[in-house]
Amino acid sequence: MAKGIEIRDAHFPGRAPIDAYGNGGFRFADMSHRGSILCLPSGIHGWAPKIETALTAEDLALVFKEAADIEILLVGTGTELRRLPQALRDLLREHRISSDPMSTGAAVRTYNVLLAEDRAVAAALIAVD
After folding, report:
1. pLDDT greater at residue 13 or residue 75
2. Domain that holds residue 39
3. How far is CA 62 from CA 5, 14, 40, 48, in A?
4. Does the residue 6 lie in any domain?
5. Residue 128: predicted pLDDT
6. Domain-located, residue 91
7. Given a cut of 80, is residue 6 above it in pLDDT?
8. Average pLDDT, stretch 120-128?
9. InterPro entries given for it (predicted)?
10. d(Cα 5, Cα 29) in Å, to the nearest integer?
11. Which of these, 52, 92, 98, lies nearest to 74 by C-alpha position?
């Protein structure tokens, strides 16, 4: 019996550099994704933070799940730099993760460099138009 279309969470099971960003999404590994993404040791995941201007620990739950394999979290905050809330920075520090918020473009470029250097890097990237 056919089920029809099955919708799954967006997930690319590998680490890959980001080839392009803009128009509300990202290109990587000969694929494209519309919306924001989390680049983690387990792969690249579709991501939808509840309020992009004020990230929470809940928004970064997958980051904390993989904290043992992450030293640096780059946070692409869109077109404008936004500081992370103090409580979130403290929680990241408790997990021994250094956080660095910056524009999404700068975060993509920095992520690609650190990934090429085989560093323990992750990125939370908010899509830009």
Report:
1. 75
2. 11-125
3. 26, 15, 8, 12
4. no
5. 95
6. yes
7. no
8. 97
9. MTH938-like_sf, NDUFAF3/AAMDC
10. 24
11. 98
- pLDDT tier at 75 (50, 70, 90 boundaries)? very high
User: For residue 4, is it within any domain?
Assistant: no
Q: If you write DSSP's letter for every residue of the chain in order, what string do you get?
A: ----------EE-S---EEEEETTEEEETTEEEESEEEEETTEEEEE--S-TTS--TTTTHHHHHTGGG-SEEEEE-TTS--PPPHHHHHHHHHTT-EEEEE-HHHHHHHHHHHHHTT--EEEEE----
**Could you give the number of structural domains in the chain?**
1
Which domain CATH number covers 43? 3.40.1230.10
Residue 14 has pLDDT above 90, yes or no: no
Assess if residue 118 is contained within a domain. Answer: yes
